[in-house]
Amino acid sequence: MAEPFRVVHYVNQFFGQIGGEEQAHVPPASKAGAIGPAVGLEAGLGGHGQVVGTVICGDTYFTENLELAANQVLTMIAAFRPDVVVVGPAFNAGRYGVACGAVAKAVTESLGVPVVGGMYGENPGLEMYGRYGYFVKTRANAAGMRQALPEMAGLVLKLGQKQPVGAPEEENYFPRGIRVNYFAGERGSRRAVDMLVKKLRGEQFTTEYPMPVFDRVAPAPPVAAVSAAQVALVTSGGIVPKGNPDRIESSSASKYGKYDLEGMAALRADTHETAHGGYDPVYANADPNRVLPVDVMRDLEAQGRIGALHRYYYATVGNGTSVANAKKFATAIAHELQNDGVHAVILTST
Prior knowledge:
There is one protein chain. The protein has helices at 37-43, 59-64, 66-79, 94-111, 124-129, 145-160, 168-171, 188-201, 282-286, 294-302, 323-339; strands at residues 5-12, 29-32, 49-57, 84-91, 115-119, 134-137, 230-235, 239-241, 257-260, 272-274, 308-309, 312-315, 344-348. It is α/β, with parallel strands linked by helices. The strands form three sheets. It has a six-stranded mixed β-sheet, sandwiched between helices. Strands 7, 9, 11, 12 and 13 form a five-stranded mixed β-sheet that branches. The radius of gyration is 24 Å and the shape is globular.
């Protein structure tokens, strides 16, 4: 049997078994061999490939030091002399996805080594860096690990053994924007007519050239008189009353909350906290106004610079929350605010 090809796996602090969000600040580190999901990946290579090293970096450190972290991780990966590099899978974790994508870009451009990863379709890292690797389609959270690893291993095997990789729909990875010439069974004009006939009949068909879909939102007109306007606060930063009474999830939120601000000059650490699981909660819990600026809005209200702060604020968690749920929340919240005569909204995040 030929010597196994060499694989290096990049993971974040959680999958690198360092810790959770409290360790998201850790800088890059490298370790020999397979750690965390790399163990399952290596098992799927059937002895043809070996994970010779794992590189680990905290999500917060990477995204706050994007260029520096990418260079540090690249240096560590290069030291293992990989034939294939694997990143993630990141599922729908935004910071992790961006880090995986940035690593894929650095490896592709600097080392010329193929990259395999995994992401959920709404992960921002996919839109930013999808063309730099073969990113398998995954579920939104780590519950999809058992499905993702075998598919990633299949691609790693082909790349490591210099075998051709099939089309995205065959291998279940996201299109990379690369066109490949191939010989079809029917000429283009016949295929086009066949698709047209199916469309006219209302039958199912698959286009060979899907068009991009853009979500365009027309900007609202400016507020005519801010000094007389009722202004509301809405946040995806997860600021909720102490104890999180509505049990809003720390990631992939399925709900939002509506909370009363009547009689509050500011939020306090003993009355409010963050339910968000995607950033270090220490500073938000110490002073919730850092995420939801009730104190500043009350000052503006007292100075007459706004008419009034709306009695209720709305909160959810943006961490890993699907676009579909976010749109649903926004529609419901906007409807209530319009009915309450709100003129403007300040939307705060993390």
